[in-house]
Amino acid sequence: MILFAVIDILGSIPIIIGLRNKVGHIQSEKASVVAAIIMVAFLFVGDEILNLIGIDVNSFAVAGAFIIFFLAIEMILGISLYHDDEPESASIVPIAFPLIAGAGTLTSLLSLRAEYDVENIIVAIMINTVFVYLVLKSSRRIEKVLGKSGVNIIRKIFGVILMAIAVKLFAANINELFNA
């Protein structure tokens, strides 16, 4: 449940629909599999990777908070900050990383590892990956059901929620940076 809340794929539906409209197609399978691989790999070697490049978990989380904050700005104001000259697909960037397997998710995995067995965390990752796949695969149907105004309303609401998550992630980790 913790991963479900952090990944927040339901809250990302407006972002997914917007990205699909920009690039034309999202490879749901590819995005889901890559996100799962990133999460499982980070579960096992995340601390070592961050230590190797001299980044602590708090710095990583603050950087992730900035990314989430800018995604929220795009959603709330209806502007585009991320420009790719010729996007072929939005499957890996920004869907698999940082939308699904972003800094909040990866930081949460490191925290969960201290409290739960690795096997349980892997099962949670797989269950969440299946749910993510189903949402990605049905994004076109979700858009039809909600309609353009429904998507815009949800985009604004979840933009504010996403911004609140970014602020919380930032606030929870910024003090650790200055106290270190």
TrEMBL record:
Membrane-traversing stretches: 31-54, 60-80, 92-112, 118-136, 157-174
Short name of any one Pfam family annotated for the protein: MarC
Keywords noted in UniProt: Cell membrane, Membrane, Transmembrane, Transmembrane helix
Subcellular location field: Cell membrane
Primary localization: membrane
Lineage top rank: taxon: Bacteria
Cellular component annotations (GO), alphabetically ordered: plasma membrane
Its membrane topology: Multi-pass membrane protein
InterPro entries, alphabetized: Multi_antbiot-R_MarC
Keyword Cell wall biogenesis/degradation: no
Family statement: Belongs to the UPF0056 (MarC) family.
Protein name in the entry: UPF0056 membrane protein
